[in-house]
Design a protein that fits this description.
Length: about 500
């Protein structure tokens, strides 16, 4: 075995000496591997070899030789590569010349003109001349997306330092992140705050779990909506509000001008704020009201041809009540939305004028929707009756009145109590006395009756003191004998009155 080994080693050394004299060597780093090249030889014809605990590279044939490298090496970056020799790191040029001496315990590749190095287990930053931009005195140092700013750590606490301007935030935070518009989001003791790139406080530390993504900053609220801000001209500017996140795909977002769009959980405005009204997304569908009218859209803002809706309650115009996401709206005979699907209930006149029940500030109210679609002409009512012959009683501020099919009051009067308008007649009370009006608001009987009892077919038993009589469906008074309608024989069934 020894006889075979000696000639091999002699031949090996001969190849190394001869080839090294015949060829000019260069070290090339590619894909985290180092290659030695010889002038006139293709770089990729060289393969790595190991001799003992050292690594080197040899060519395809013996004439190309073997060149031994340092213990470890990193890829070239910005014309310099970190190399390790006998446990110490330095930097060489792409010609193999040592540019920064072997004096570091660890060394990373250069980026943006700087490299992170370790001396005595402390991290620092050097430039291409080997001078310190940040002295090695931190337990850890890492880069940020800003080439001039670095995270520094001491005792597991984080800070931020600028390579030329010095410390921005001293180590003392559990978490730090650089956001858009030169904002730093900081966490400490289960609180969060915002700083600018100079370390100036934008928002003091707060219990609210602040979220900063892209250009937007969300400060969660316990209310239904949370405010969204942008950092502009060295101050927080409110951009709008977003419905609190979220189990659904997207959340409604309202900008500072009152327009609506949709935002995802990363605070990206995925559907622009171009609508005057929206619902939440459910099963990938949402209702919106915009330039194209009311429509149902998908998660990328495109109209859906056959959304998940149910239809019922047709009126004389062929209009129908349509349910979407548990709320109701009105569509005409062509299937075009007339009102938004945002209501709990509807009462529809023959003209299409509607009374719609909705929630407002935790209360259920009825709103008048007319064909004019003018929001300024939308009075609200606490209670409404049934529509009979295109007339409906409504209650507002404790008083009753009647609407016609146009949504207009049939007269200028208001009452303390009313009955339904049936067969063109209704009983109305002012103060303690009852009277009667027709469907046009004309007074049929004066307010002289102390008590009334509906008898069916729009007839009423009336009492004027001890005197009793009957009001027929035409509003005419018919004298009634006491023995025919004694007070003790009065029907006790509650009449269809408007609630007091």
């Amino acid at each position: 075995m020894a006889k075979r080994t000696i000639p091999f080693l002699i031949a090996f050394l001969f190849i190394v000496v001869i080839s090294s004299k015949a060829q000019q060597k260069n070290i090339i780093f590619h894909d985290n591997r180092a290659y030695v090249t010889f002038e006139g030889i293709d770089d990729w014809e060289i393969k790595p070899v190991q001799i003992g605990d050292k690594y080197g590279f040899e060519g395809k044939n013996a004439s190309q030789g073997i060149f031994m490298l340092p213990d470890k090496a990193r890829s070239f970056s910005e014309d310099l590569a970190a190399v390790c020799l006998d446990g110490r790191w330095g930097y060489i040029s792409n010609t193999g010349k040592l540019k920064i001496p072997y004096r570091y315990d660890e060394a990373q590749s250069f980026a943006s003109g700087t490299a992170i190095v370790v001396v005595n287990k402390r991290y620092g930053l050097i430039n291409k001349k080997g001078n310190y931009s940040i002295k090695p005195k931190y337990s850890f140092l890492s880069r940020t997306d800003n080439p001039d700013m670095f995270f520094v750590f001491d005792d597991w606490k984080a800070g931020i330092i600028h390579r030329t301007k010095g410390m921005i935030l001293s180590p003392g935070y559990s978490e730090l992140s650089l956001e858009c518009n030169e904002v730093i989001l900081a966490s400490k003791d289960n609180k969060q705050g915002l700083f600018d790139y100079r370390g100036k406080v934008i928002l003091p530390m707060t219990d609210a779990p602040i979220k900063a993504r892209g250009k937007f900053i969300l400060i969660p609220s316990k209310e239904e909506f949370s405010p969204v801000f942008e950092y502009k001209k060295n101050k927080l500017v409110k951009s709008g509000r977003v419905k609190n996140f979220i189990s659904s795909d997207l959340a409604p977002f309202q900008d500072s001008k009152g327009n609506w769009g949709f935002m995802n959980s990363q605070l990206q405005l995925t559907i622009p704020a171009i609508y005057s009204w929206v619902t939440e997304f459910d099963s990938g569908e949402a209702a919106v009201d915009g330039h194209n009218g009311i429509e149902i859209i998908d998660l990328i803002g495109q109209p859906i041809a056959n959304p998940k809706t149910t239809r019922n309650l047709y009126n004389t115009l062929g209009w129908q009540r349509v349910s979407f996401q548990g709320r109701q709206g009105i569509q005409d005979s062509d299937g075009v939305w007339v009102t938004r699907p945002d209501y709990l209930d509807f009462k529809i006149f023959s003209t299409g004028t509607s009374l719609a029940k909705h929630e407002s500030a935790g209360k259920e109210l009825w709103v008048l929707l007319t064909a004019e679609k003018d929001p300024t002409r939308r009075p609200t009512f606490s209670e409404v009756g049934e529509i009979h012959q295109d007339r409906c009683w409504v209650k507002s501020n404790g008083k009753f009145s009647f609407l016609n099919e146009q949504g207009l009051m049939i007269n200028s009067q208001s009452y303390e109590e009313v009955t339904e308008m049936e067969r063109g007649i209704a009983a109305v009370r002012k103060g303690t006395l009852w009277g009667f009006i027709n469907r046009d608001g004309k007074q049929l009987q004066p307010h002289i009756y102390t008590k009334i009892v509906p008898k069916g077919n729009s007839h009423f038993l009336v009492f004027e003191g001890k005197k009793s009589g009957l009001i027929n469906s035409k509003g005419e008074y018919l004298k009634a004998e006491q023995d025919i309608y004694p007070a003790e024989a009065i029907d006790k069934t509650p009449p269809k009155f408007g609630n007091k």
